[in-house]
Design brief:
This protein has about 290 residues and is mainly α. The chain folds into two domains: about 90 residues, no CATH class; about 190 residues, no CATH class. Strands 1-2 form a two-stranded antiparallel sheet. The radius of gyration is 20 Å and the shape is globular. The model has no long low-confidence stretch (mean pLDDT about 85).
Length: about 290
């Protein structure tokens, strides 16, 4: 990944021409350029990792194989956006990622909202007898006390920077806010198909709605990404902790279209309710703060 800044320096003589092209280019060209460069920079690294893991293309990626591939992919994205800013395009602050202490309070607020919204939905499922708590697995939570929050914060930060930061901001240059939100959320949902098609397809409506709510979270934070980052990370942390420690089992009293197909909350009514609950709170929060973003 260190070669990205070196590549930018090497291409410095052509920077002015590239900058003029990107500034005058339609927004879709800028967006496509980012994703193409992102993938091209990641592919050599992915090939080396895949060979080291002895992964065969016709076989499904296992979770322990996916993480080594995802980490360099995610770490490359901010480097490429940094390179674009070095060329004179928009900065991280333009995309809502500010380097101020206030982002930490927004992060904590969003994280709390994500965890509480999920807790409310699962509490309702417990009361209805749709799922049961596995107390004997509590010790598994301690084993993952550090790695899961770190991964959740990393994934939340990078995905928010890309989709609610870069992508939404660029689309909003040429399209109305509502259309930029719809398109960026649709791309956010569809790109999840890259890794798992069978389990992701039922989640697509929920993922799109999640993207829309995360756009709203940026509005609630006056254009910054702190709340959206925290909300996203809170959902990832809570779901990953429940799955990894197997703290929840479903009783089968309700259809999986209610609890979540393939045990994925976003593939069922419960997950949709969770996202809508967070969205309703953010909507009230946005109105209370009289956001004009």
């Amino acid at each position: 990944m260190f070669f990205v800044p070196i590549l930018i320096t090497f291409l410095k003589p052509s920077a002015d021409t590239l900058l003029v092209f990107l500034k005058d280019a339609p927004v879709l060209v800028v967006v496509m350029a980012f994703f193409i460069v992102w993938v091209l920079c990641w592919l050599p690294i992915a090939v080396v990792i895949a060979i080291a893991l002895k992964w065969q293309p016709h076989k499904t990626l296992q979770p322990e194989q996916k993480l080594p591939l995802l980490i360099p992919l995610y770490l490359l994205a901010p480097l490429i956006l940094w390179g674009m800013s070095r060329l004179g395009l928009r900065s991280f602050a333009d995309y809502g990622f500010i380097g101020e202490i206030s982002i930490l309070s927004s992060l904590l607020l969003g994280f709390s909202l994500g965890v509480i919204s999920l807790a409310v939905v699962f509490a309702l499922q417990f009361l209805l007898g749709w799922c049961q708590w596995q107390e004997q697995n509590h010790k598994l939570v301690l084993a993952n006390l550090l790695p899961i929050p770190l991964i959740a914060l990393l994934v939340g930060a990078i995905e928010e920077l890309i989709f609610r930061g870069f992508l939404f901001t660029e689309l909003n240059r040429e399209y109305p806010i509502w259309l930029a939100a719809v398109i960026s959320s649709l791309i956010f949902a569809l790109l999840h198909l890259v890794w798992e098609q069978r389990e992701t397809i039922p989640q697509l409506p929920g993922l799109w709605l999640m993207g829309m709510v995360l756009v709203l979270a940026r509005f609630a934070d006056r254009g910054n990404l702190g709340i959206a980052w925290g909300l996203h990370a809170g959902w990832i942390w809570a779901i990953a902790t429940l799955d990894t420690a197997e703290l929840i089992t479903y009783t089968g009293k309700a259809s999986e279209w209610f609890t979540g197909k393939n045990k994925k909350p976003l593939a069922g009514v419960a997950g949709i309710v969770c996202v809508l609950l967070a969205g309703a709170i953010l909507w009230l929060f946005s109105g209370w703060r009289n956001v004009n973003y």
